[in-house]
Specification:
Length: 512
């Protein structure tokens, strides 16, 4: 019998911790001096302002005011010295958050709230009751230990914090997200899949039933794993055919670094990648979302490179390629585009340039995990967004969060909503200014166009608390539970803890 801890004593924490927060696919970099100083200053501001306003500090931090003071603290501390070489004279940071330093309630409301259509094109959850828990116990332990988190996860079984209920709660109640794509992870068998396709369909159907008629707020990926086992390609193509004919899939998801035999694959590989692309074209589901960057543990790091994106985009202009994570590698610093020695997202940009792929055509850069991991470093964040908007196009940068691996996406939404690229910095590097129009495109209008969402309107896709509570009751009996989760993250932010776990498990963890 599953159950909850009684009367959990949660720590007083920020809505998000400055620094990197892994989605479980990489060891986060150690926090810098500026990250630690930002965290300390945010707590100091929260303590002082909450007392002045007569508000409990824990409740203050789990509100929009808490997000505002955290972003204000990042502004006040400034950027790392390593980032200052690309700044014009007199400019302290490439970007800043437009937030009040005193958490004035009216200003917090005006700056941090909005009415954008927000379409999150990369979201996840797991099935805590699925066969994978017994089939792949090491994977289940990993999800429970890191993505389940502690102490913010108040469930006795930590996998429950990654369930369908928490997904609905975090994405649609505790954030301004309007629509979402539910994605999958690569595995060699359905029984080792943390969320198989049947369970994905159940989530889609439940969420859509809780929504107003015809809102269709949930879209689905179907993961394609042509190298799952020797000779897997044919069965994968047959599965693509069946799911497309049943009209159950809106896009395909591929993990080229996935390597059950130690070797990944590439989209321009004539033996694996090209057959998948041509099958997608034949079926008329012409969007492929490819994991690039974030080299997964135990997978093929080289195959995480986006160097093949430009090749296939030029060869198949009628196919849309969404580059998940935009090719970002956690160990690199984002700076001005360097074609001579490309690192991080520069590898994607160079692939597009080398193959003559123009901005605003058929390659889309997606922000899942990378915005959360880089938004505390405002000059790097300005370079990242500026480069993607410049080289992929203002119409081809898509909002994705990789949640619920990192809890509710609301802090990420508020950070992007308030982020500004310095005008002098933008002019020096040829970046566009982050206008309200561009932000609306990134948040959802561009994805709506890609996924064929007609007349996207925020008000048409609201779910109220009572309906989500009915989902909770259907999933399991939790009568009498009134604990508020809000934006507490359930993700691995502790570098030393992750390294210790991997050393104890022989560094052999991988999905499937």
């Amino acid at each position: 019998m599953r159950g909850r801890k009684t009367d959990p004593e949660l720590p007083i924490v920020l809505p998000f911790t400055p620094g990197q927060a892994s989605n479980g696919e990489f060891v986060p970099k150690a926090r810098s001096r500026t990250h630690s100083e930002s965290e300390a200053l945010a707590h100091e501001l929260a303590d002082r302002i909450s007392r002045k306003q007569g508000v409990d500090r824990r409740r203050f931090l789990q509100s929009s005011a808490g997000i505002a003071v955290t972003l204000a603290a990042i502004n006040l501390v400034g950027c790392d010295d390593e980032d200052k070489g690309s700044l014009p004279d007199g400019v302290e940071s490439g970007g800043t958050f437009d937030v009040p330093t005193d958490a004035d309630p009216d200003e917090v409301c005006r700056k941090l709230e909005g009415d954008e259509f927000i379409f999150d094109v990369q979201t996840h959850h797991v099935d805590p009751e699925g066969p994978w828990v017994k089939e792949s116990p090491v994977t289940a332990q990993f999800f429970a230990r890191f993505l389940g988190g502690d102490p913010s996860c108040i469930e006795t079984d930590k996998l429950d914090c990654l369930s369908r209920f928490y997904y609905a709660h975090d994405i649609f109640l505790e954030s301004d997200t309007t629509m979402a794509v539910l994605s999958d992870t690569p595995t060699s068998t359905d029984n080792s899949d943390p969320l198989n396709f049947d369970e994905m369909k159940r989530t889609r159907d439940i969420i859509n039933q809780l929504s107003p008629p015809n809102s269709n707020r949930m879209k689905l990926h179907s993961v394609v794993v042509p190298n799952a086992f020797p000779g897997a390609l044919e069965s994968q193509l047959e599965r693509m055919q069946a799911r497309a004919e049943a009209m159950e899939v809106n896009a395909w998801k591929v993990y080229t670094p996935y390597a059950p035999d130690g070797t990944g694959w590439y989209l321009d590989d004539e033996a694996l990648g090209i057959p998948v692309i041509e099958k997608a074209l034949e079926l008329g589901v012409t969007t492929i979302c490819a994991h690039k960057g974030l080299p997964l543990f135990g997978f093929d790091r080289a195959a995480a490179s986006p160097r093949d994106i430009g090749v296939v985009a030029a060869r198949y202009p009628e196919m849309n390629f969404v580059v998940y994570h935009s090719g970002w590698f956690p160990g690199t610093r984002e700076g001005p585009y360097n074609a001579e020695n490309p690192q991080g997202t520069d590898v994607l940009i160079k692939s597009l340039e080398d193959n003559g792929v123009q901005p605003n055509t058929n390659v889309y850069a997606e922000l899942g995990s990378i915005w959360r991991n880089i938004m505390s470093d405002t000059t790097q964040a300005a370079h990242l967004l500026g480069k993607l908007l410049k080289y992929c196009g203002e119409d081809n940068v898509l909002w994705g969060t990789d949640c619920i691996w990192t809890g509710s996406p609301q802090p990420q939404i508020a950070a992007f909503r308030t982020f500004q690229i310095d005008a002098q910095f933008a002019a020096q590097h040829g970046y566009p200014i982050l206008t309200d129009e561009i932000k609306r495109k990134v948040f959802g209008l561009s994805a709506a166009r890609l996924y064929g969402v007609e007349d996207p309107v925020v008000s048409s896709c609201r779910i109220d608390t009572d309906e989500i509570e009915s989902l909770r009751a259907a999933w399991r009996d939790l009568e009498g539970d009134s604990h508020e989760i809000r934006w507490m993250s359930r993700n691995p932010t502790d570098r030393e803890g992750m390294l210790r776990w991997f050393s104890q498990h022989g560094n052999r963890w991988q999905l499937g």
